[in-house]
């Protein structure tokens, strides 16, 4: 299960404490990252951890409905059967 994490309105010190690697942005959002989970429960646990780090709740964790990765001549396709945007 893959999701996109967007964070805004936080200080650099908060971004440094995030438990994922991603990209710092300058504009409407401060940070973006692609995150992967093995289950929906793992995603919900991660969201709770983010709420503890980002006190203001200024983030969105958006599950990816459909994704594909081309590996040589073959494409690996992932599909999330019941997409549920965890919007904070």
Describe it.
With 88 residues, this protein is of the alpha+beta class. The chain has helices at 12-16, 40-53, and strands at residues 2-7, 23-24, 31-36, 59-63, 66-71, 74-79, 86-87. Strand 5 and strand 6 (74-79) form a beta hairpin. The longest helix is centred in the middle third of the chain and has 14 residues, at 40-53. It starts with a strand and ends with a strand.
Integer-rounded radius of gyration:
14 Å
Catalogue the unreliable spans: none
How would a textbook summarize the main sheet?
5 strands, antiparallel
CATH fold type: Alpha-Beta Plaits
Number of strands: 7
In angstroms, what separates the terminal alpha carbons? 19 Å
Fraction of residues in H or I helices = 10-25%
Tell me which CATH architecture applies here.
2-Layer Sandwich
What is the helix/strand order? EHEEHEEEE
The secondary structure category is alpha+beta
Q: What is the level 1 CATH name?
A: Alpha Beta
- The total domain count is 1
Helix count from the secondary structure assignment: 2
Spell out the key features of this protein.
single chain; Alpha-Beta Plaits; 7 strands
List the helices and strands and how they pair.
Layout: E1 2-7, H1 12-16, E2 23-24, E3 31-36, H2 40-53, E4 59-63, E5 66-71, E6 74-79, E7 86-87
Antiparallel strand pairs: 1-3, 1-4, 2-3, 4-7, 5-6
